[in-house]
Amino acid sequence: MTIKTYVLDTNILLDDPSAVASFDDNEVIIPLIVLEEIDRFKDKPGELGANAREFSRYLGKFIADDSVDLRQGTAAPTGGFLKVVTMSDLKEYGADLSDLPELNDYHGGDNKILQVMLGLANKAKKEFLPTPILVTRDLQLRVKCRVLGILSEDRKKSGLPSSVGKLYTGVRNLEVSWDIVQSINEDRETPISLNSIMSDADYDSLSPNEYITLKSPDGTQLQNIYKHVEGERFAKLTKTPNVYKLKPRNIEQKIALDMLMDPSIKLVSIIGKSGGGKTLTALAAGLEQVLGQKKYKSLVVCRPIEPVGRDVGFLPGTLQEKLDPWTAPIKDNLKYLLSSADNGDVYSKKNKIESEATLDQFIERGIIEIQAITFIRGRSISNAYIILDECQNISAHELKAIITRVGEGTKIVLVGDVEQIDNIRVDSMSNGLTVAVEKFRDSDITSHISLLKCERSALSELAATIL
């Protein structure tokens, strides 16, 4: 296998401090200017500062041995080669951008990295080595690389699709013959044999807990829904119970409620456009199982603190008052759902909660927690129903830090819209939600559904589609 040379930009290491170890046995180069930029983040609060410090500790392990010279290079833990290069190391190879008057700041971080890449490319050409590749999340820097003939790429997670349109949806629509449609109409109670009508290719590609829906040859959607349980077994979904005021309006919402109420599924991911009912459905199922069925002792709802549009800056007041603008949408949904608790037509007498109890009282008693994702990292939460809302705004590294802290008896629900991302450090394919959907699809304790239809209003659906 040909050994490749990858040069890492600052944003790669701030996004994932252990990124150096993910390039197998290839050569990984870190420009000295990148170390300088990371050093400026070490004292910053939040995830960026934490990642900068973690990477510094990671790099410190290499220099613990006095014989290691990072400029000459050293073996990496994965069998590759790690090296730090400086501008002076590359001067003899013509690392110079001074003949480009458009670049008015030769000392800027990005332009210094470009000069390093030019020097490395010239060195590789003279020594008949593979052309180095710059790995960066910065699209503008990749455009500059293309102009200057420098190879560059975004960091791609292995096993992920190339676009959102190819993302795993969690449900498969199977066309059946008119004979089967007729037999279903005549006997709606008896499940049909999916094994006999599904092609070998379709069957082999099924994921655990993947759902199958049926349509007739003319495209008419049938109401039959099946779940791939294990091996050759398929379970037919029975009537989906209404939860609080919620009544599923489409097949995808029925599927979402089924997986949310299934205790054998420990992680659920729900993707959908605005107005699809993602958060409301997840909250309703959570309240049902925490307050009604008593399956979990608490409902924990978390959101990342990412402003839409311009940030409003520092806010006065206590920590809770500062978080109120971000937690307000969650509280609105919870108040709406809790207001249905005394409606006998919706909520059974047996599981009826105290109608006089308010959301604030549940929060004071610790039954419901609403907080920023920042404050859940590091905790170990057992016997809880956890919802991570707006999950598209966190990185895969952040999501890993959260999920690995989940204790026994806990169910975690990931909710978000991968086409509405406010975090500039992730995109539709690198965010934590997308990575989780694809990485967990082969596990029998996880399940996923993509909600396709906006149910909020006709105007909301139109806006979600065309804007």
Quick description:
By secondary structure, the protein is an alpha/beta fold. The chain has 16 helices and 16 strands. It has helices at about 10-15, 30-40, 45-65, 85-90, 110-125, 140-150, 180-185, 195, 200-205, 250-260, 280-290, 320-340, 360-365, 395-405, 430-440, 460-465, and strands spanning about 5-10, 25-30, 75, 80-85, 135, 150-155, 170-175, 210-215, 220-230, 235, 265-270, 300-305, 370, 385-390, 410-415, 445-450.
Note down, in words, how this protein is organized:
The protein has 467 residues and is an alpha/beta fold. Helix content is 34%, strand content 17%. The chain has helices at 10-15, 32-39, 46-63, 87-90, 109-126, 139-148, 178-186, 194-197, 200-204, 251-261, 278-292, 319-338, 359-364, 396-403, 432-439, 458-466, and strands at 5-8, 27-31, 74-75, 81-85, 133-135, 152-153, 171-175, 211-215, 221-230, 233-236, 267-272, 298-303, 368-372, 384-388, 411-416, 446-451. The strands form 3 sheets. The chain has a 6-stranded mixed beta sheet. Helix 10 (251-261) runs parallel beside helix 11, helix 11 crosses helix 12 and helix 14 (396-403) packs across helix 15. The longest helix is centred in the C-terminal third of the chain and has 20 residues, at 319-338.
